[in-house]
Amino acid sequence: MISPARSKGLPRLPECPLIGFIARLDFQKGVDILSYECKFKVVLGCWEKEHEEWIAYAEPSLKERLRGRGGFSSPISHRIIAGCDILLIPSRFEPCGSNSMRSMRYGTIPVVHATGGIQDSVKNFNIDLESRDEGTGYVYM
After folding, report:
1. How far from 106 is each of 26, 28, 33, 82, 137, CA to CA, in Å?
2. CA–CA dist 21, 25 (Å, integer)
3. C or N: which end of the chain has fewer Cβ atoms within 10 Å?
4. Local structure of 137: helix, strand or coil
5. Distance CA 116, CA 79 (A)
């Protein structure tokens, strides 16, 4: 499936992963983790005023690296998860981790903060060559 972001003009560069973020853009969900350092980002979420202004300001100047959409749409969230290489879930606290489970279903790598239900649903990938088949994503503290 073609990512909605790539179809909206982000360049296709195989060496650069497409990173998705689907959440309310607030402190609880780790929105401050989103930085200008990521090569490509697709952002979907209900925005607080300051973050809405940041996206509105940043998107035109970062048109080769960023796409954002306010509000929530279940069909679009599924397209983003399916079309991204990585789903970033930096929540400071999270009760369930349903997006991480969706990402694993679509084959998108979840990169998650070790908290709440997320740490229960994502098993950290082990780089040890003897256990290469273990893990479902990356968990950081």
Report:
1. 26, 25, 23, 5, 12
2. 9
3. C
4. strand
5. 25
Q: What is the pLDDT of residues 108-140, one digit of tens each?
A: 999 999 998 888 889 998 777 666 667 899 998
Residue type present at position 18: L
Q: Phi and psi (nearest 5°) for 17?
A: -70, 150
Q: How far apart are CA 93 and CA 28, in angstroms?
A: 6
**Beta pairing class for 66-70 and 41-45:** parallel
The first and second tokens of residue 121, run together, are 């649903």
119: amino acid identity, one letter: Q
End-to-end CA separation in angstroms for the chain: 32
Quick check: 136 and 125 in contact, CB under 8 A? yes
Which residue numbers in the chain have pLDDT < 70? 1-9, 34-41, 44-48, 51-52, 70, 129-133
